[in-house]
Amino acid sequence: MTISGSNVFLAKLFRNLRWQSIAVLLRALISVIALALIVRESGQALMGLFGVAWVSVALCFSIIQGMSGHSIIGIDDVDSNTINAASFISLLSSLAMCMGLVLSAPLWGLVIGNSDLEDAMKLGALFIPFMNLAVVEN
Fold this sequence. Notes:
0% strand
């Protein structure tokens, strides 16, 4: 049985998505364990503030992952220059979004009416570049 070009592409896509799904599940498991430990030590009220801030961080991560991480999936012949360019875009966009959240943190503190949210947003923003280090998988 021969496999046409589109079927080969689909086979590669599903194989890559399977490994990516396993990586996402492992990240989620690590996040749940880390959050459980943080809630236990910090208390529920403080953790609620970090939960609001973490929504912004997760949104930034999803945007960067879709922009630079998933954009190279459809390319047939991916060379090292393409991977390097996607990694560089991921780094720059991570730093830009980190700066954006840090600079907008006082505004979010005023909108929500809690100055502690400002600190939570700033702390959460620092995680964005680290979360996006491996968005573009070699």
